[in-house]
C-alpha cells in the first residue's frame, strides 16, 4: 500500500524532530501502522532555516514557504501543524479541516483557546484532530486520560507540566540561583517558549491543564476560566522556608471535580517533600491522575524537546493512519466524551477554591502580635496547622521577625479577608505572602 502522505507546516524543534524520528524508525512504524508514513511536503516561513535543520535529509522532500499550497494539495492526507500560536495556525488548521484533511498538532494554545471551534469543524467534516504532543511532550497523557482511564470517574489531576519553570525552581532551590539567572539557563537549554512569559507566568501550563481538564471531566475547553499565577514573583526565601517546613514549591496545574464545580488553576504550590511529584526535578514533567477505580496513577517523562515531542506527534500520525478509513462515529471522540454529552459543570473562581495556605509576614517583635494574628484567623474560621517564627535574615537587629503560618484547608475568600485584616495591623510591617498548599491526597 502507498504510504500515507503528511504535509508538515513548520519545521522548528518539533517539526524537524518529527521528520528525524519518522525517517529513523520508518520500518518499525510501518509494521505498527500497517503502511508507511511519509512527510511528502514541508512549508515553513524560512525555508533556508528548515534546510539547515534537516541536514543531509533536506534533499528528500520539497520545502517551500506556501502553507496553503500544502493544505490544498489533494495528495496530502494529514496536515501536521507545528507552527504554534493562535494566529495563522488557527486559520491553517481550519482550512485543512475544510479540505477534509486530518490534523495532527502540538499546539496547546490553539486547542485551549479555540478547541471548541476546531473540534466542531472537524466533526462536521468527519476528520480527526490529534494532539498528544500538545500536553506534556513525550508523556502519552492524552492517550491515558482519553482511553486508558476511560472506565474511571476521574477526580483530579495535578501536574508539573512546564519544564522551564520546573527547571528554574530546581535551580533556585538546589543551587541558590536567583530567578533571572535560572531563566537564562532554561533558555540556553532550549526549554522555554519563544516568549518565556508564557512559561514563567503559567500560561503554557494553563493551556495544557485546560485540555486535560476537558478530557478528564467531559467539559468544553475553557482557557478563559483558568486561574493562572506564575513563578516570576516567587521569592527565594519562600523556597527556603518551605524546605525548612518539609515542603517543595512546584508550579502545579491542578484540576479537580468538587460538589460545587471544577477547579482549574495553575500556581506555585507547596507539596510535601515526601510526595513523588516533589522529586520531579529539572525540565521533567509529571502528571498525577486520580480515578475512582484505578486510584492514583503517575506519568513521568520529558515534556519538551525535539524527539520527546516528536514521539507524541508520530504516535498521533500512526493513530490517524490506522483509523482514517474507520467510520468517524467509531473513532475516539476528541475530548473523550461524546460531543453531545459534554457537561456544563461550572468552573469555580479561585475565591471558591479550598486549599491549605502558607502565609509569610514580617512583624514587629512585640508582645501580643501573634495573638492578634491568630485571633483574626480564628474569627475567619481558619484553623492553623503550624506556626513558625523566624529570626529575620535580612534585618538582623531591628526587632522585626518573619512569621510563617501553615493553615488547614480553607476557602480562599476567607483567607483573603483575613489577610486584609492582618495587613491592617500596625505591628505587621510587610504585606502577607500567600502561597497555596496541596496535600495531593
Ligand atoms: N516551554 C514548554 C515547557 C515546552 O517548558 O515545558 C513545551 O510545551
How would you describe this structure to a colleague?
With 441 residues, this protein is α/β, with parallel strands linked by helices. The protein has three domains: 4-138 and 306-341, Rossmann fold (3-Layer(aba) Sandwich); 143-302, Dihydrodipicolinate Reductase, domain 2 (2-Layer Sandwich); 351-437, 2-Layer Sandwich (Alpha-Beta Plaits). The protein has helices at residues 13-24, 26-33, 47-54, 67-71, 88-98, 108-125, 141-148, 163-175, 179-188, 197-200, 203-217, 236-244, 306-323, 369-379, 412-423; strands at 4-9, 37-43, 63-64, 78-81, 102-105, 129-130, 154-160, 227-228, 247-257, 262-272, 284-291, 295-302, 354-364, 384-391, 400-407, 410-411, 433-437. Strands 7, 8, 9, 10, 11, 12, 13, 14, 15, 16 and 17 form an eleven-stranded mixed β-sheet that branches. The protein has a six-stranded parallel β-sheet with strand order 3-2-1-4-5-6, sandwiched between helices. Helix 6 (108-125) links the parallel strand 5 (102-105) and strand 6. The mean pLDDT is 94. Bound molecules: L-homoserine. The site of L-homoserine has 10 residues, from helix 8.
Tell me the layout of helices and strands.
Blueprint: E1 4-9, H1 13-24, H2 26-33, E2 37-43, H3 47-54, E3 63-64, H4 67-71, E4 78-81, H5 88-98, E5 102-105, H6 108-125, E6 129-130, H7 141-148, E7 154-160, H8 163-175, H9 179-188, H10 197-200, H11 203-217, E8 227-228, H12 236-244, E9 247-257, E10 262-272, E11 284-291, E12 295-302, H13 306-323, E13 354-364, H14 369-379, E14 384-391, E15 400-407, E16 410-411, H15 412-423, E17 433-437
Parallel strand pairs: 1-2, 1-4, 2-3, 4-5, 5-6, 8-10, 10-17
Antiparallel strand pairs: 7-9, 7-11, 9-10, 11-12, 13-15, 13-16, 13-17, 14-15
Bound molecules: L-homoserine (HSE).
Amino acid at each position: 500500500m502507498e504510504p500515507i502522505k503528511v504535509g508538515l507546516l513548520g519545521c522548528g524543534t518539533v517539526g524537524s524532530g518529527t521528520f528525524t524520528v519518522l525517517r529513523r524508525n520508518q520500518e518499525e512504524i510501518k509494521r505498527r501502522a500497517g503502511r508507511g508514513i511519509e512527510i511528502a511536503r514541508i512549508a515553513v516561513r524560512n525555508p533556508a532555516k528548515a534546510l539547515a535543520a534537516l541536514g543531509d535529509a533536506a534533499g528528500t522532500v520539497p520545502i517551500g514557504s506556501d502553507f496553503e499550497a500544502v493544505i490544498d494539495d489533494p495528495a496530502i492526507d494529514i496536515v501536521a501543524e507545528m507552527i504554534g500560536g493562535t494566529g495563522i495556525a488557527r486559520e491553517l488548521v481550519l482550512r485543512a479541516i475544510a479540505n477534509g484533511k486530518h490534523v495532527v498538532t502540538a499546539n496547546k494554545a490553539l486547542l485551549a483557546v479555540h478547541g471548541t471551534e476546531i473540534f466542531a469543524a472537524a466533526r462536521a467534516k468527519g476528520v480527526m484532530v490529534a494532539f498528544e504532543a500538545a500536553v506534556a511532550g513525550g508523556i502519552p497523557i492524552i492517550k491515558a486520560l482519553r482511553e486508558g482511564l476511560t472506565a474511571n470517574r476521574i477526580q483530579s489531576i495535578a501536574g508539573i507540566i512546564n519544564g522551564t519553570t520546573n527547571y528554574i525552581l530546581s535551580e533556585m532551590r538546589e543551587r541558590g540561583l536567583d530567578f533571572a539567572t535560572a531563566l537564562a539557563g532554561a533558555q540556553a537549554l532550549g526549554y522555554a517558549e519563544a516568549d518565556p512569559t508564557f512559561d514563567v507566568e503559567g500560561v503554557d501550563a494553563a493551556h495544557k491543564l485546560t485540555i486535560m481538564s476537558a478530557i478528564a471531566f467531559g467539559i468544553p475547553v475553557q482557557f478563559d476560566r483558568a486561574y493562572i499565577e506564575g513563578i516570576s514573583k516567587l521569592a527565594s526565601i519562600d523556597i527556603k522556608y518551605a524546605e525548612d517546613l518539609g515542603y517543595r514549591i512546584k508550579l502545579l496545574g491542578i484540576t479537580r471535580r468538587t460538589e460545587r464545580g471544577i477547579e482549574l488553576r495553575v500556581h506555585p504550590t507547596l507539596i510535601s517533600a515526601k510526595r513523588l511529584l516533589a522529586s520531579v526535578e529539572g525540565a521533567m514533567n509529571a502528571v498525577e491522575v486520580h480515578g475512582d477505580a484505578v486510584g492514583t496513577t503517575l506519568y513521568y517523562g520529558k515534556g519538551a524537546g525535539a524527539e520527546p515531542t516528536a514521539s507524541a506527534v508520530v504516535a498521533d500520525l500512526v493513530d490517524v493512519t490506522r483509523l482514517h478509513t474507520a467510520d468517524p462515529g467509531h473513532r475516539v471522540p476528541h475530548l473523550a466524551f461524546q460531543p453531545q454529552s459534554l457537561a456544563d459543570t461550572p468552573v469555580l473562581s479561585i475565591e471558591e477554591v479550598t486549599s491549605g495556605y502558607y502565609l509569610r509576614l514580617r512583624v514587629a517583635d512585640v508582645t501580643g502580635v501573634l495573638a492578634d494574628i491568630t485571633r483574626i484567623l480564628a474569627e475567619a474560621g481558619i484553623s492553623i496547622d503550624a506556626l513558625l517564627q523566624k529570626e529575620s535574615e535580612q534585618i538582623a537587629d531591628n526587632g522585626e521577625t518573619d512569621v510563617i503560618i501553615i493553615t488547614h484547608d480553607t476557602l480562599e475568600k476567607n483567607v483573603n479577608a483575613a489577610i486584609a485584616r492582618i495587613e491592617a495591623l500596625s505591628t505587621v510591617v510587610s504585606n502577607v505572602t500567600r502561597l497555596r498548599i496541596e496535600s495531593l491526597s
